Amino acid sequence: MATAISQHNTPSADAGTEEEEDDYMSMTITEPSKPKHERETYTQRRVRKEREAELRGRPKSKREREADEAAARDAALSTSLSPTNKGFQMMARLGFKPGSALGKNEDARIEPLGVVLKEDRGGVGLDSERKRKFREEAEENSKRVKAEEVGYRERVRSEREAKRLEGQVVGAQKVAERLDSAAEEGGDLGHGGDVESVSPPEGGHANNGDEGRSLRAAIPKKKSKVKPLGQINVLWRGLIRHRIEKERERRMRYDLHQSLSRLPTYDDPDEDKDDELALRKHGKHEVLEEDVEKEDLELDEFNAREPAERLFALVQYLRDTHHYCFWCKYQYSDSDMDGCPGVTEDDHD
């Protein structure tokens, strides 16, 4: 019974072996080889010789010649001198041994210097000179870019600071104009006259609202007199001049729009107070129009100064004349100005 089972299983095992051997996916088909006894025919030999002659007679391209030269050079450099070489024999007679260094120092160079093929017509050292110039130009460009960045930032910062100082100069000019107008008309800010004195806030500082209310309350509403431009203090004369020029330009545009051919100084007897108020003919300082056209060397010299210098002059004038601190926004009762931290803006930080 066991013999029958073994005989029955033998064909299935042989079938599995055949399946493992017949792997058609990994089969490689080889070209049939020519039999050794087969000779080359006359036609085949003639075609082969013609092909070889054509290859030998065809001139090589530049790229092929360069590749052959590089291969021959590398092969020659990678091959050491043979004992039959005359140069090797001369060095051997002088004590040279293969694998040792030349000369009396044992730590000298063993391998020869590398060969660098020069393919252009430039002189020796031209490449290093070009590299040096290129490196210097790159360094100069980087320095210039950094300098331009720093210069731009510094210029923007200085422009912003100058603009801020100009705004403070205009503010100080307006304060000086109001205080002088109040003093000329009999008023006084914070002490004297009919204005009730106000005690300074803690620390000597006052806000802008207190300053505006104090200044407006200190100026009595009286009709101002004609005041020539040259008699106005040079510290805020530019403010008045700019205001007059702006007002004159506005009136000229208005007259042109209304098609009225009359000078800005023309006085119409038929105009009432409302018309005069609309045309702003009465201001705090009624300045003659002819004064605006005159050249003012004193004002030009003052405007040529730096904004910081003009601001300091205005602040010092307010302190000395009116006991008013531009930074505290408060007018003190005496010249001691007790409670004011100092003259400069940094003292009030």
H/E topology pattern: HHHHHHHHHHHEE
Unreliable segments (pLDDT under 50, ≥5 consecutive)? Answer: 1-13, 189-223, 283-287
Physical arrangement of strands within the biggest beta sheet: 1-2
Largest sheet: 2 strands, antiparallel
Report the total helices: 11
C-alpha end-to-end distance = 117 Å
Question: What kind of assembly state do the chains in view correspond to?
Answer: single chain
The helix content, as a percent range, equals 40-55%
Structural class: mainly alpha
Average pLDDT value?
75
User: What is the overall silhouette?
Assistant: elongated
Radius of gyration: 53 Å
Describe the secondary structure blueprint for this structure.
Elements: H1 2-21, H2 42-57, H3 62-78, H4 86-93, H5 126-184, H6 208-218, H7 234-257, H8 273-279, H9 289-293, H10 297-303, H11 307-322, E1 324-325, E2 330-331
Antiparallel strand pairs: 1-2
Overview of this protein structure:
The structure is a single chain. This protein is an all-alpha fold and 349 residues long. Helices cover 54% and strands 1% of the residues. The protein has helices at residues 2-21, 42-57, 62-78, 86-93, 126-184, 208-218, 234-257, 273-279, 289-293, 297-303, 307-322, and strands spanning 324-325, 330-331. A two-stranded antiparallel ribbon has the order 1-2.
Salient structural properties:
349 residues; mainly alpha; two-stranded antiparallel sheet; 11 helices; 2 strands; 1% strand; disordered N terminus
